[in-house]
Amino acid sequence: MTTLDWPLDLRPVEQVFHVRTQTAQTPSALSGAGAVLGRRGEHWIAELILEPVQGRLPWLEALLAQHRGGAVEVLLPDFVRLAGHGSLASFDAYAAEIGATSFEDGTMFDDGTAFFEGAGTPVIAGGCGQRLVLTGCRPGAADVLLPGDLVQTSPGRGHLIAVTGTPDQDGMVVIEVAPALRSPPLPGTPVTAVCKILMRLTSGEALANPTTPFLRSRYRLSFVEAP
User: Checking DSSP bridges between strand 4-5 and strand 74-77, what pairing results, if any?
Assistant: First the structure.
């Protein structure tokens, strides 16, 4: 079935968009205190409140009808984080600044000039669980990816950057993300702008909305990340 793509010009007047964590608590019957254990199954949830202008009301109703109450999935952006703030500073730029070059086969210059083997631009090299590995980053740069931004690891799978690191001398850095990776990330340049999460409506009541004169409507839509 076709996946819908949420229009970027259909902006909510209010939104909730966050990672829902899963925990298990074992409180004491005497004190009420107890351990809190993290569980698998973190996922995105979202709630959008829309107040379409009169001319767009029929168009919005037609769009919501296409969702079929959650049977059809949609790529939904977080309108608070449409742009990343990280620099994505590359090893190539760093090498150019200091006048060094690298060769893929590791050969040296005839005059003995030093070179770097870890050159390149930032790419996702792998990841597992809550950790994502990037290579080709500028060594020592603390702002390649910034906490609070989103990074997309594959179409429809986006993650909040929880903890970032500093690239080592080879341009590699490990960052922590939430929710945890459900599948191996696709290699390539990390996407940090207009990341979209594959989600679905949680209810078949999306078309229900209070309307007041003169055709002023308010929609409250709830979404959950698709499995």
Answer: parallel
CA dist 27 and 34 (Å) reads 4
pTM of the model: 0.83
- Residues 6 or more apart whose CB falls under 8 angstroms from that of 47 comprise 15, 16, 17, 220, 221, 222, 223
pLDDT in tens, 127-148: 999 999 999 999 999 999 999 9
- Asked if 190 and 172 touch (Cβ cutoff 8 Å), the reply is no
d(CA 104, CA 219): 55
Compute the distance between CA of residue 27 and CA of residue 37 in angstroms, rounded to an integer. 11
pLDDT confidence tier of residue 112, bands split at 50, 70 and 90: low
Are 172 and 135 in contact, with CB atoms under 8 Å apart? yes
Q: Under a CB-based contact definition with an 8 Å cutoff, are residues 92 and 79 in contact?
A: no
What letter does residue 55 receive in the DSSP assignment? G
- Decide: 190 and 124 in contact? Cβ < 8 Å: yes
**Residue type at 134 in one-letter notation:** L
Cβ(75)–Cβ(156) under 8 Å?
A: yes
CB 109 within 8 A of CB 139: no
79 burial level (CB within 10 Å; 0-12, 13-18, 19+): middle
**pLDDT tens sequence across 20-71:** 987 777 776 677 677 777 777 899 999 999 998 777 888 898 999 999 999 9
* CA 66 to chain CA mean position, Å: 25
